[in-house]
Amino acid sequence: MVSEKLIYQIGLTLIPGVGDVLGRKLVTLCGSPEAIFREPKHHLRKMPRIGNLLAQAVGSKDIMLRAEEEVAFIERYHIVPLFFQDDGYPHRLKQCLDSPIMLFFKGTAALNVTRVVGIVGTRKSTDYGKNVTHDLIAGLAKQQILVVSGLAYGIDSCAHRYSLDSGLNTIGVLGHGLDTIYPWLHRPLAERMLAQGGLLTEFLSKTKPDRSNFPRRNRIIAGMCDAVIVVEAGRKGGALITADIANSYNRDVFAVPGRVTDPYSDGTNFLIKTNRAALVQKAEDIEYLMGWKEKENPAQGIQRNIFIELTPDEEKIIAILKQNGHLGIDELCIHAESPMSRVSASLLNLEFEGIVRCMPGKVYSLL
After folding, report:
1. What is the DSSP string of 58-108?
2. Sheet containing 146-149: order of strands
3. Peptide bond preceding 90: is omega within 30 degrees of 0, i.e. cis?
4. pLDDT at position 361, please?
5. Domains of the chain
6. Are 329 and 340 in contact (CB under 8 A)?
7. Smaller CB count within 10 Å for the chain: N or C?
8. Which pLDDT value is given to residue 297?
9. Residues 197, 170: contact at Cβ < 8 Å?
């Protein structure tokens, strides 16, 4: 049964001492979350560092009861659970080492579209920041981007509203469960987003919006996106944390400059000054830097060389990309059952021949 499988997936996240990284290792080692819970306790106790905790957890009625309670909540409110091995899990986020084992989504948007942009900033946005956010989104609307932010006051909520007004889907990543909205004043905005985007979280219901949850929320924003844009920010706060995480994930990071006397441009100016973000002033800058700028003669396209001889490895990669559309390099290695060194060499040759292109986040597709 699907519900039984989901109970074990959620139960895995409830085991004390098992985080996202270790959780994935356990699934790889045992084969599935269900297998972890059914593993003999004397085998579990042999696992270094975590053995005793695991042995206690698999026999804990509290963990399974809490997991069953969450499944009932999910089914009642038509929430989509996303385990990290599921096809619907955001494939960009899946490439990140510390991505959540489980996500919970409510909404209508597809999470694996071609172009995903995060827009974040200070909660105390100025008219300048709001106007820039509006202009950036209006300018990028023709690219049909998915806009991701944190549903917070200030720049985040502006990004969501302007996306809705521009006909774009927008995702709010939450630092709490889907049984509440924080801040509560954004409930009408959240309801609009359910019909034109959605809400996403890694937290179970009844999880309060504690301060410690928001840095975890920020890594989801950074990992889901091809690029993160910081519009306004102080030197400290969630926006700069998101930018730092995005850099660690090899995502493109952009920042809007401001006057040196403005406290909420101090953070964006700092990102630019320290080469942690590229300076952008308008949507065209982002299109150019991301390679989204339309060609002057788009009908001409790129001419492939149809007479080249392909190696078996290259033919296998082309077949995989034809079937899947676009994949990250880690996923390509899994599908090709080849080490990254061989896959990387084949991808480089295919890029030179104009057959494959590399998109932001090391995602590859056929031209």
Report:
1. HT-HHHHHHHHHHHHHHHHTT-EEEETTSTTS-HHHHTSTT--SEEEEEES
2. 80-83, 102-107, 197-201, 170-173, 146-149, 116-120, 227-230, 252-255, 278-279
3. no
4. 64
5. 2-76 (1.10.150), 107-290 (3.40.50.450), 312-366 (1.10.10.10)
6. yes
7. N
8. 42
9. yes
**Which residues are bridge partners to 173 per DSSP?**
200
Task: Look up the pTM and report it.
Answer: 0.80
Q: Which residues have a Cβ under 8 Å from the Cβ of 279 and sit 6 or more positions away?
A: 254, 255, 256, 257, 272, 285
Ordered mean pLDDT values, 10 residues apiece, the chain (367 residues) = 86 89 87 86 72 74 93 96 95 93 97 95 96 97 96 97 97 97 96 97 96 94 96 93 95 95 95 95 93 56 58 89 82 82 85 82 79
Nearest to 21 by CA among 52, 61, 63, 49: 49
Strands 227-230 and 197-201: unpaired
The answer to whether the CB of 310 falls within 8 A of the CB of 279 is no
pLDDT of residue 260: 92
Res 49: pLDDT:
65
Cβ neighbours of 304 (radius 10 Å): 12
Residue 19 DSSP class = -
Quote the distance between the C-alpha of residue 167 and its chain's center. 21
CA 264 – CA 153 distance, rounded (Å): 14
Instruction: Please report, as a single letter, which amino acid is at residue 283.
Output: A
